[in-house]
Amino acid sequence: MVSGKGPGANEADDLFSDQVINGFVGGMNHALEASGVDGRATIKVVRVLKLDSYAGKHYAVSGPGFSAVVRVLSKRVDDRRQLFMLFVMTRSGDGSLGNQFLNSFKFSGQ
What we know:
By secondary structure, the protein is α+β, with helices and mostly antiparallel strands.
């Protein structure tokens, strides 16, 4: 899990989530290329998320030898944006394990 607060309060929730995941996967692809690995990580939107006052998206990421489940949630706080990104990476073919793990979390509005 990664969390932080920063700029982005003027952006729509769905666009902000897409920018976060594109930056995350862009970093993965840079590392894959620098290591001489053939292939790139790709992103698929699974669904739109809404959790209390947080909005975001659930993504599936796949790449050479791995898959990942990523959830990006954020909300506006004054002129900033609070971000949470949860992700689980597994070997290719084990993607359901990542979903099971993330789905095991119970969230409350407290």
